[in-house]
Amino acid sequence: MIENELRPKVNEFEIQGTNFSDYQSPLFIAWQLNSICNLECLHCCEEAGEIMPNELNREEVMDFCQQIVDLNIPYVAISGGEPMMHPDFFKICEFFRSNGISLKVETNGLFINKEVAARFGKLGFRSVQISVDGASQDTFEKMRIKGNFKKVIEACKFLVEAGVNTEIVFVPTKFNIHETGKLIDMSYDMGIYGFYTGKIMQIGRAGQNWDILCPSAQEYEEFFKVLTEKEKQYAGKMKVYYYPYDVIEELKYRLEKPSASLLVIPNGKTKLIGPLPFVCGDLRKSKLSEIWNDYQKAWKKDEVISFTKQVIENPELLKEANKWREL
Amino acid sequence: MEFQKHVKVRQEKFGAVVFETLREKIFVTNESGAQILSLLQAGKEPEAVTNELSSMYDGDPAVIKKDVDEVISTLQESGIIKN
Ligand SMILES: C[S@@+](CC[C@H](N)C(=O)[O-])C[C@H]1O[C@@H](n2cnc3c(N)ncnc32)[C@H](O)[C@@H]1O
Ligand code: SF4
After folding, report:
1. Cβ pair A12:B27 closer than 8 A
2. Residue A152 domain boundaries
3. Closest partner CB to A14 (pick from B8, B19, B30)
4. pLDDT, tens digit, 9 for 90 and up, residues A18-65
5. Which fold does the domain B7-77 belong to in CATH?
6. Does residue A8 lie within any of the structural domains?
7. What is the interface pTM, i.e. ipTM, of the complex?
8. Has this prediction a pTM greater than 0.80?
9. Distance, CA A41 to ligand 2 centroid (Å)?
10. Dihedral pair phi/psi, residue A88, rounded to 5°
11. For residues A76 and A95, is the Cβ–Cβ distance under 8 A?
12. Residue A289 carries which DSSP code?
């Protein structure tokens, strides 16, 4: 999940301005562009598949892009659903890149052939992240229903050949966790720039399929051991990044230190953070600059604080994440 | 001084924020650091940055040079600008 990655690594020239409210506008936009998807992954936190009612139309989408540029927001991550199924996917990417915005895309990779990879290559993305949840066809396709392992690996190769900073994202589950090390080795052999992983979140379809998906404590222990070893093995050659916190630890941290980012869902509403149900803005009703102010106020509301504490006490409540609550 | 490819700098009320988006690292600096950054971003060499700031503030060039050098070495160590 993209918003996790912005937990600041404290490393300042001088300790100032580290509070999210000190920034004039967000530093990062995590944008779920659409909800439609060609796959039916068992773990999908977004429960993607169908078009969400009332998604932003093409004009509204471009208006939002312009607001991002006007507010001088440096970094955008586009996800979905499957973002490459959006009719204006490349138009949006071209717009951001021509305005110098750092851009990352998360995709299942199934729409990337040689020509598409070359198009990505020309745009100078910060990165294209491909979800590869397994090192073999069998495990991959067990989790990524309707997926195609061979095609996705081919997509990674096309992107690398086209000079794109290509990253692999791996979500561990009971099905595939034993293949972690093998997939990291494969990534390196393919010339991948970075390998990203972290614990699966109990949200959306993952919540519904938790018993068959969630790795055991012992499996996780082995997983992190493998990651530590691989991180050392590939130091200076390929980035092996793993997010050590689970979603509950993340929420505890965020309650104290919300991130300087906004999460925008396909209908133009802005969520406080993926694992919570709270909606703090609507691009159809307010300007992005106003939503940024509302976001800051929202984190201080009693309703948010008390519900977040309840989720921390009782992670079952993560099931509410996609049942939006307007603030 | 060349900035790394995926680095973004934004001026803020408190100074500036530097976002190294490739490693997703955030750095912040105060107003004087922000001024040095903005001159470097405009393509000025360190010496020109020192001269410009010295004339702007009528300060001791040796002290200003030290500040500029310090900011540049921090930027290099943090992978913000190329060595
Ligand atoms: C929701 S998908 C959208 C982009 C694209 N369709 C894809 O699969 O890459 C974004 C990322 O979230 C990951 N993801 C989905 N459900 C998750 C869960 N329950 N926990 C952690 N990551 C999850 C996916 O594997 C993917 O890497
Ligand atoms: S994880 Fe991505 S590819 Fe899989 S169903 Fe969700 S949105 Fe689609």
Report:
1. yes
2. 22-326
3. B30
4. 688 889 999 999 999 999 999 999 999 999 999 999 999 999 999 999
5. Arc Repressor Mutant, subunit A (1.10.10)
6. no
7. 0.92
8. yes
9. 6
10. -110, 20
11. no
12. H
